[in-house]
Amino acid sequence: MQEDYKYIKEQKIVEKTEIEKEMELIRSIIKTREELKSNNKNFEYAKEELIDYYTYQIKANQAKLDYLIKLAKLKGIEVDMINNKKYTFLEEEVG
Length: 95
Prior knowledge:
Shape: flat
Radius of gyration: 20 Å
Number of strands: 0
Order of helices and strands: HHH
Distance between the termini: 56 Å
Number of helices: 3
Helix content: over 70%
Number of domains: 1
C-alpha cells in the first residue's frame, strides 16, 4: 500500500529590517572583540597543550573580526560608532 505524501510549503521567513541587520552586525563585532581580548589574556597564562588552542582561537576571532569590520564599512558603519554602542549592547544582553 503506497501512502500519498503531501509536501507542506514552507512559510517565508520574515526578513529583518536594515536597522536590525546593522544592530546585529554591531553586536557581533563587539562580541568578537571581547572574545578576542579574552583569548589573548588566556593565551598569556596558557600552558603546554592550551597554547595551540588559544593560538587557533586568536587567529579565528581575528579573521572573523576583520570580516565583520569590512562588512560594517561597506554598510557605512563607522568603527567609532561601534565603540560608542558597546556598553549599551552589553547592558541589553545582561538585562
